[in-house]
Amino acid sequence: MTTTTEAAGTGRAEVGKARLRKEDNHLITGRSRFTDNMVLPGMLHLALVRSPYAHARITAIDVSEALASPGVITVLTGADVAGEQGSLPNAWPITPDQKAPAHPAIAVDEVAFAGEVVACIVGRTAAAARDAVELVDVSYDELPVVLDLEEAATDAVLAHTSLESNRSATWVFDSGEAGTGKPIADALAGAEVLIERTFHQQRLIPAFMEPRSTVVDPTGEQIIMWSATQVPHILRLMLALTLGIPESKVRVIAPDVGGGFGGKLQVTPEEIITVLAARHTGKPCKYTETRSESLQAAHHGRAQVQRLRLSATREGIVTGLDVNLLADMGAYLGLVTSGVPILGAFMFNSIYKFPAYRFECTNVFTNKAWTDAYRGAGRPEATFAIERLMDELAVELGMDPLELREKNWIKHEEFPFTTVCGLEYDSGNYEAATAKALELFDYDGLRAEQAQRRAANDPVQLGIGISTFTEMCGLAPSRVLGALSYGAGGWEHAQVRVLPTGNIEVVTGSSAHGQGHETAWSQLVADKLGVPFENVEVLHGDTQISQRGLDTYGSRSLVVGGMAVLAAADKVIDKAKVVAAHLMEASEDDIEFSAGAFTVKGTDRSTSLGEIALATFAAHNLPDGFEPNLDSDATFDPVSFSFPHGTHLAAMEVDTETGAVHIRKYVCVDDIGVVVNPLIVEGQVHGGLAQGIAQALYEEAVYDDAGTLVTGSFVDYLVPSAPDLPHYITGRTETPSTTNQLGAKGVGEAGTIASTPAIVNGVLDAVRHLGVKDILMPCSPSRVWRALEEAKTAGTNTTGGVQ
Amino acid sequence: MASSISITVDVDGVSYTDDVEPRLLLVQYLRERLGKTGTLIGCDTTNCGACTVHLDGVSVKSCTMFAVQADGHTVTTIEGMAQNGKLSPLQEAFHQCHALQCGFCTPGMIMQSASLLAENPHPTEDEIRDGLEGNLCRCTGYQNIVAAVKSVADGVEYGDSGVSATIEDTRTGALS
């Protein structure tokens, strides 16, 4: 076993090395800097009054008793701040006629989900503020609620009285019209086999471990905000736009951030309210949510109904896919809520050569917490659908599901390949990843055991779940985002600063929350500039230090942010060459740079980056007109997405007497191109797998008929713990991306995207011979047991999902 | 609010005497009164384990105890785990095994793991997983946390840098 990737001839010492993380020490010793640890002199504390109703008109709010409560400084209602709180931003109007209700941080006259903020208590202590929450007397007129997505789409009940319809927007992609493929109508009409299914993507909660927390210091004319956010730069801009503060007066700092998974990619009401409270009191204010508040009111993910039609030939060649989605926005549009299904639109064809494709999505409001990006954002939903459909087609045709996939996927020699969505996949080798996965899994052996168990009518049946996948990483080329009506670009910024000692400071616009940027970026720069890994410091997460950036989400950090770092480092080398030539009295064209040394070609005259840095700092002897520093910055806009891929295999045991599901073996082989740090990559895969498996087996946000979140604590919302998850067997193949200089593809969401369908396909494969055709996620013991019972009752003719 | 009660608690080797409200949770006392912010709060239902500390050497969730219940007892937090500037074996193992990402669950995980090993010095992987059931992690998928605890149980010595060969071997060929 080696810990270094094959990078022969590249001179890479660091890239590919399993470096231990620079980030760890303060986290393992309890010296962390999470926002809630922050204490400022004179700091006040907030507690929020939240609506118990999912839909109601606010008729009166009496705060007198709360104001009289000991330690309460002030109470803010929606009416108190109506003129200054603005409407929370949606940055992705997917269609010109998109409908959206205004979204005040504190509701003014109507609440549209249980948990919406109706008042803010500002207290001397957190306890004082919380004590007063119950003392705010809010009078509500209850309004009808609409919770079910399909019912909401009928407009029988409106989620907002200010809207005429619950439909926010409908977005369509048609390969026939786009000229990227054939018309879907022809494919469906000519289908020899037609698979029609409806899948439900249950509502999930990102459930980052660190509850959201915000501290705002209204020092002087500047607002300084510390926040548990993934997006400090975007947050700064949006605070400025929402509250009408000049951007230059806002500084956002994301200190240690305890996980995000998309859930902290938001401009939250709580952040806006903390600014309002700080401005009203003139004092630093802190708000930290409880877990119950987090589950109730931080944004949720997934929540789609997917109606699908897949056409194919009898030989198993897919001829077309028609996708019709309803996507649950919840009560409001968050920052990128409306665009999440659109990200998925480009991934339904996955790794396959579909000749015809149509996608139509309608975004619908309901009286639930709003949805937005959650790990994978649209792409897990798409991959689940197509991988479930491929299994259904294989069953229909009596074909091995792997053989069916092979017949349809893009062959290694066919890259680059333009998909039916018009995306160009630069590289991929699905054959290699699949072969390696099969080898690690013992596919034939487990199939033989499965046959034995079936023959013996074993109460514990074995199923094999397969999922192949690709994801669209490196969000995103700005021109593509523009074409999709997103409000910003997809570039990233970096600065490389050469200190007089030759030590390096890297400033990155990516903002880490567990991904190990400090370590990985140090490795990149150590190789590029030929300096020791230890001599590189990475600075991030503070808009006053990292002045430009578009932050961290969508597996963009390395393939966009990392490329910006490399581009900036290239400029450092170019500048240093000028000085090197001057100092060694040579022509710039004769200077060669390698491993930290600048050498005059064909001579032994050489100088180091450190020596040049010191000479540049002293500035005693520089070329005429040379600006005395080596610092450089770069803004990198990717030319294309990157497309990591992989093959995941799950051996699932299902106890047919109890419905209990057990993961017997889980193998995944991911191809993420060139790997910078295999240790970090592997950790990302493990964490992703846990979240994808959780969707398949454990997690679901459940509301009662009144719109109250039933899974409002970790007692009910089942984030899996250590004994719930298996020991993963992970492997890698490496097909470099051709669209960036490193050849990297990104890894953040791979585990999540592929594992959900692998697990569900495996569960179904275990019990399909008993007549079960589908089971709604999460495949809890009760759902599996009931599906088996219903199959018994119905013979083998159960259809559709089982509630 | 009821009047304050005086308590004396030994925390990480220092004796503290404070007047506290009866309702003050131990975790709040540690964080807000003593400034020991290494102990974190992740939930309000005693499920996540981020607040795990040792009370007289045994792991407890400090959000489930009142500060007054710690009166006369000894508390060890994550800040008390490293001794004389040297990381405890579990802290070192968490670093070496990449058993943390965002690091929010990490103090609780380390404290719970220490208690688990004190009770069962040679646990199997399943016993480790069961022992960590009350501590939630959203980043690591638990595999590297389990590997870290196992490595300490197995007496793995780590060098100055790089990953121990034993830990590499538990990684099932992932780095091939």
What is the CA-atom radius of gyration of chain B, in angstroms? 17 Å
- The helix-and-strand class of chain B reads alpha+beta
Q: What is the oligomer described by this structure? A: heterodimer
Report mean pLDDT of chain B, rounded to a whole number. Answer: 91
Strand order of the largest sheet of chain B: 2-1-5-3-4
Main pleated sheet of chain A: 7 strands, mixed
- Termini of chain B, distance in Å? 62 Å
Question: Biggest sheet of chain B: strands, sense, closure?
Answer: 5 strands, mixed
How confident is the prediction overall: mean pLDDT of chain A? 95
Ranges of chain B where pLDDT stays below 50 over 5 or more residues in a row are 161-176
Shape of chain A: globular
Output the number of helix runs of chain A: 22
Helical fraction of chain A equals 25-40%
What is the tally of beta strands of chain B? 5
The helix fraction of chain B, in percent, is: 25-40%
Beta strand % of chain A:
15-25%
The number of helices of chain B is: 6
Poorly predicted spans of chain A: 1-10, 797-803
Structure keywords:
heterodimer, A: 803 residues, alpha+beta, seven-stranded mixed β-sheet, five-stranded mixed β-sheet, 29% helix, 23% strand, globular, disordered N terminus, disordered C terminus, B: 176 residues, 6 helices
What does this structure look like?
The complex is a heterodimer of chains A (803) and B (176). With 803 residues, chain A is of the alpha+beta class. Chain A has a seven-stranded mixed sheet with strand order 3-5-1-12-9-10-11. In chain A, strand 20, helix 17 (517-529) and strand 21 (536-539) form a beta-alpha-beta unit. The longest helix of chain A is centred in the last third of the chain and has 27 residues, at 557-583. The two termini of chain A are 47 Å apart. Residues 1-10 and 797-803 of chain A have low confidence and may be disordered. With 176 residues, chain B is an alpha+beta fold. Chain B has a five-stranded mixed sheet with strand order 2-1-5-3-4, with helices on one face. The longest helix of chain B is centred in the middle third of the chain and has 14 residues, at 106-119. Chain B is globular, with a radius of gyration of 17 Å. In chain B, 57% of the residues are buried. The chains are: A alpha+beta (803), B alpha+beta (176). Chains A and B meet through helix 1, helix 20 and strand 28 of A and helix 2, helix 3, helix 4 and helix 5 of B.
